[in-house]
Amino acid sequence: LKGGPSMNTPGFPSNPQVLRERYIRQLDSSDNPTQTARELAEDLFSLDLTVYSSDFSFDSLLYSAMAKSILDESLSLHPEQIQIINEIAFNDAVIVSAPTSFGKTFCIFEYIARVTPQNIVLIVPTLALVDEYVKRVIKRYQRFFSQYKIHTHIDENRKYDFNQKNIFILTHDRVVHESTYAMIEKIDFLVIDEVYKLETDPHNDRVLVLNMAYYYLAQRAQKYVLLAPFIKSVEDIELLEKKPVFYNTLYSPVVNDVIPINILRHEDRYPECQKLLTKLNSNDKTLIYFPTVTGIYKYVNEYISTEPCLEDLPTSVQYFLAWAREEIHDDWCVIKAMERGYLIHNGQIPMGTRMLQLDYYETNGLFNKLLCTSTLLEGVNTTAKNIIITKPSRMSDQNNSAVFSAFDFYNLVGRTGRLNQHFVGNAYYIKAPGDPEYRKIDAIKSIKFEITDNSKDIDIQKGDIARYPDVIAFLDELGISIEDYHAHIGSQLRFDSIKTIYTRYKLNHQKLVTELNTFIFDPHHGRLNLVKVLFEIVEGHSDPFKSNIINNLLNKKRPKIKAVVNEVQRYFSSRGIDRIISTTINMKSSYIEHQFYPKILLIRYFLELSHTSEQLLTVLDSKITGAIEYLYYASSKQKKMLIDLGIYERDIETIVKIIGDDYEDAFELKQRLQSAWDKLQDISFISKYVIRAML
């Protein structure tokens, strides 16, 4: 190091990453990092920090010329990226574990650009990552991928041509049905991202879904890659399909520092966060992590809302705020935050708005502070010099709370630092008495996929039920075979979840049938009581508040969120406007489609097995399942594609009337939107924004 010991000095650390960090810190502290890199070029090159040694030494110049990226000619791959690409090329299956800042996803797209496999399946955990991948393919790297058909859904009514080039970019729950597996006839290259989610979690239905997606797709794939951070090893790896090669590296071109901020009381978290924000450079990108959406809204209302509004907001921001006031609500915390220079990202924000928030954070110098929840743990790529962790905990889809492990903690920490922007990223940990101490070594863990674990649910999905008398007894009680179970119940829910719902169904069966019968005698009878009964079966408790919201959201006229919020507020004003707004958005954006609907279909199946009349099943379809399918475009994958891109649902019919609904893939959709842009002026601001971002 300049002014210090050289790499050959006795006693100098031998761990390559420790050495790298020392050099990266030297670049960070330099007034002129470029000049410092020139002076240290040979050492930087020796440590594989070729992104910094650039062409400043002969060896590095030669290397950079040989390691040019095909995707982006302005970049040269670092040696470990080349190693991963070689591992993928020479092996049928590879598991890659590397830090967040490594560039794993870039390696995948670089490999595809170099090898051009014919049929590619990319599985990601969230729609946000589907959007990110689609943008890479159809916009950033269009010249390489325009030869492919890009699919974000599997249409069971369509025959796909696997003799042409296809890329399927899907969430795991969209490939979980056996009929879907059968439709993907050929896979030359399969990638599953955030694969640590394959680890056994008996309380999480989605883990079962992902394991079964891996189980079926890996059998069909000629080659597959699994991606994850902080994985030391995978137990029983020899039992996995094609016995993957495990590639593990700690290489990182940035440094992540953890800076504890000790407080005496839990109540001091938010004041300390606010104080810290005033000390940080306002031009630096800063993420502020909260374990719950409620925490974000509390912080906005009690602290941010006391700050003065910004003057002269950009025109696009003013348009968005006007749309949000009209469509969502005047009291929405996103509006309060943006007016004061803050952005918000969580799962209870509509997809189009989430995209806009991330885009403004990345590109607009006015918005450098982003309040977020654990959606940030789902692989969303962001730029940050700093992250403030207000509390070491997180919410769970299943239990409303979950252990916040060292893995979770350092996954957040790893969101700081960015190649060629922030050499060193800072994670400020607001630590109260009793909060855990986290060590990086504890974040690097061994995992065991449920597919190779001792799992009743996996055995059920494989048909191996002989040693489970409770499963056999349950099938006997229903009067079905295991094949019937697979065909009608499938793998979206665990056995214990299904059995629990069935128990609640039996307890509420008469009440449900009575409510369905009411519609026979009075076709204009309101739907609310039916929703209440179904919600109680689904969730195990009554909740008039949420039932009321669901009932309003099932209106086929597609009311504005603002209209639903105002209606619910008439009866539940004590819940507070923030909770009413956030719950309504969550119900509309996620819960009804992904949690409520699958369980309603299960209840419908139980009704069939109970020999319920076709007339009553028709009532259920008309009032509940059919309404959900209509509102969420279950029968139109083309319209669903628009929704997933972030298009506002109330604009879908208008757009389809102009561009048609017979496009086959994302590239064709993009071309139609581009050609029809001048005719798409009567749609909402948010839809226009999403379309412009796509073109």
Count every helix, treating DSSP H or I runs of 4 or more residues as helices.
Answer: 31
Distance between the terminal alpha carbons, to the nearest Å?
46 Å
Strand content: 5-15%
Largest sheet: 7 strands, parallel
Strand order within the widest sheet?
Answer: 3-4-2-5-6-1-8
Mean pLDDT: 90
Q: Count the strands? A: 15
Roughly how many Å is the radius of gyration?
A: 26 Å
Helicity, as a percent range: 40-55%
The global form is globular
Structural class assignment: alpha/beta
Low-confidence stretches: 1-12, 397-401
What does this structure look like?
- By secondary structure, this protein is of the alpha/beta class.
- Helices cover 49% and strands 10% of the residues.
- It contains 31 helices and 15 strands.
- The chain has a 7-stranded parallel beta sheet, sandwiched between helices.
- Strand 5, helix 11 (205-220) and strand 6 form a beta-alpha-beta unit.
- Helix 1 (16-29) packs across helix 2, helix 6 packs across helix 7 and helix 25 packs across helix 26 (577-609).
- The longest helix is centred in the C-terminal third of the chain and has 33 residues, at 577-609.
- The protein is globular and about 85 Å long.
- Mean pLDDT is 90; it is low at 1-12 and 397-401.
